[in-house]
Amino acid sequence: MTVMSNWGNIWPLSAPIKLLHPSVATVSAILAYVAVRFIYKQYFYPRFFTPLKHIPLAIPEPPSKTGKEEVTSSRKLITSLKHAVATVPNNGLLRFYGPDTNERVLVTGVKALNDILVLNASSFVKPESVRRRLYVFGGEGLLLAEGETHKVQRKSLMPAFSFRHIKDLYPIFWTKSRDLVKVLEHEISEEGSSKSDVVVIKTWATRTTLDILGLAGMDHDFQFLKNPQSTLVRHYANTQIPPARYEILLGFILSLFTSNYEVLMTKIPTARVRRLNEGSKYIRQLCRELIQEKRYKMDKPDSDQDVDIISVALRSGAFTNENLVDQMMTFLAAGHGTTSHALQWSVYVLCKHQDIQQRLREEVRDRLPSISDPESVITAQELDSLPYLHAFCNEVLRFYPSIPGTVRQSTRDTTVAGYQIPKNTTFTIPMGIINQDPKLWGPTARTFDPERWLGEGRANSGGVENHLGFLTFLHGPRSCIGSGFAKAELACLVAALVGRFQMDLEDPNGKVELNQHGIGTSPKDGVRTRLKVLDGW
Ligand code: HEM
């Protein structure tokens, strides 16, 4: 056998046939197998072998074709599927294949949504890959519990989220909104750390929503607004680190062999996975200590009937200490980023629509006590009686849902919207698409317009054809338990900001890019906003 020393001369036309080195042969065989798997999964399986052939096929639009419309909070794939939903005839379900080549079913109609989320909800659970991802920061709390355990947990926690209880939390929302305004006023002043009148809304929104959850959820003031160097904030920021290129490539290759590739990926100790696990440990320990503190306080004979979520859960007697730790982790994870995203979108859209900003400011200044008054308090009744604020917040939640899509997997053979569905079929529920569906919201569905929530009988429906058309908090037994909490919190924060500041984007004509990692979606730059204090309120 000739030993090849000259790589430039590997394939001379006259070369004799040579045997490949065993390692080259192995790599070639693996590459050939990967190629064959890819062709099978991309071409043959969808056309000839899938048991879901009876569901129409959607081809996602290439991103370049979808970039022209005003950006919504949908992730890229969901945005690119919007076109398919509008153009491929379907009866509420569409089949599609994402970049990882795995098969999914997109839910596009209210009948199918009703089957999956309401009528038959117990037959559709979060797939293992999603559970793994949520577990790291959310523990084994309400978000991940299934079956009877979920029912018992939800029933025991519901009192903490009833309006009767949420209305007692408005003073916390208002006090923290005032802290936010004060910190931002300082930030844009001469003494501020940035020495500029431009702030990154995300930085402050995240700290405020964590502070609010600390107080309203655990009766503990983290004071992250005042103390920016927080380990907790840093650990949550780590959830948004995108996977490295090699992780994406590895994920893609694994996806050709198993639909559980995402589960496998969480077991490979890459630097990113290690950092996530460290964060998870830290948050668990923090919650454990806070709950112990709370239990100690409640055991005192003269203790008050505190209104925070953990006190209500402890009084219910339904949870062990460790399970309470999981619940607290869930509330922190599910409750702070989502509301922070909503606040970021609110500021973004107020900057884009100065007429709306002006009108909202007039209503707030007219009807609410000044945020600069350190003694000012507001009641639920006062805040909830501002129709334009209510309309604006609802429209932000509709148009820019913090979580633009979620996933479910069938646990048995079943039917959805009349289609036969085998066990283990994965469904994507695209809140970002349904919330803007012209069939449900009329011809102005894709326009941001708070007016739709004003007028006779529209305050709670926005005039939608079917209540399942507003999917921001989902519906049914797995809907967001914190929706009332989040809406009241968002209204306070928006009122305080718009009442006190003139807001403009640093780059008013810049194209907004989306943050694609972590729970939920918001602008990648965190909404860089120029603030100007407006006196007189
Ligand atoms: C704008 C803010 C919020 C949005 C858009 C939002 C959205 C959602 C959505 C879409 C789900 C369902 C996820 C799924 O099952 O796939 C959910 C579940 C949940 N959310 Fe929220 N959420 C928000 C704020 C909050 C807050 C403030 C809390 C707690 C204080 C909270 C606690 C939860 C919990 C515990 C669940 C699981 C409920 C269950 O499975 O029974 N959320 N949320």
TrEMBL record:
GO terms for molecular function: heme binding; iron ion binding; monooxygenase activity; oxidoreductase activity, acting on paired donors, with incorporation or reduction of molecular oxygen. Keywords: Heme, Iron, Metal-binding. Heme binds at residue 480. Its cofactor is heme. The keyword Transport does not apply. It comes from the Eukaryota. InterPro entries: Cyt_P450, Cyt_P450_E_grp-I, Cyt_P450_sf, Cytochrome_P450_monoxygenase. This is Cytochrome P450 monooxygenase. It comes from Talaromyces pinophilus (Penicillium pinophilum).
